[in-house]
Amino acid sequence: MMKIYFCFLGLALALVACKKNTNELTAEQKEAKLQQQLDSLANIKFLEVVKEEVDSYPIFKGVCDTATTKVGQRECFEKTFAAQFQERLKKGHYEVTEPVTDRIFLNIKVDNTGKIVLLDMKADDKTKELLATESESFEDALRANLSELSDNDSIEPAKKNGQNVSTQFELPIEINVK
Fold this sequence. Notes:
Layout: H1 2-38, E1 45-46, E2 59-60, H2 70-91, E3 100-110, E4 116-122, H3 125-131, H4 138-149, E5 155-156, E6 158-160, E7 163-165, E8 167-177
Helix pairs in contact: 2-4
């Protein structure tokens, strides 16, 4: 009876110890990924689709068609998206009454038809106010820019088991207007 008790106790301790080490490692990995994303202007972090991995990432047609691996598709989409979105932001004429230095976070979805949708924007209220124009809010301007990126069926959505699926990602953007 004593052997069985020690076996159960040993098994329980092993499970707790393994679980604790896994959680610490996962938290460190998540922190490292977050820091890496924050260090870059408009770096994209893909989130899981319904807690599962996609078979292929969204791609820009005519640009990322040659990417055959998932890693290649992801990198091509990230670089192309970031470059095109940054170009659109640079073309925007934002007149501010005082300098703005902030980091905003856009939660974006590439839906199963290839359209880009802004789900949420996290930014300081003052930043939103300073970057708004008389005719539209800063958030509406971002929505319009994202919509233009996906016009003309230029994005092929992610796929899972041969079906088009939506993919969400977070886009940190450094705002530095003087």
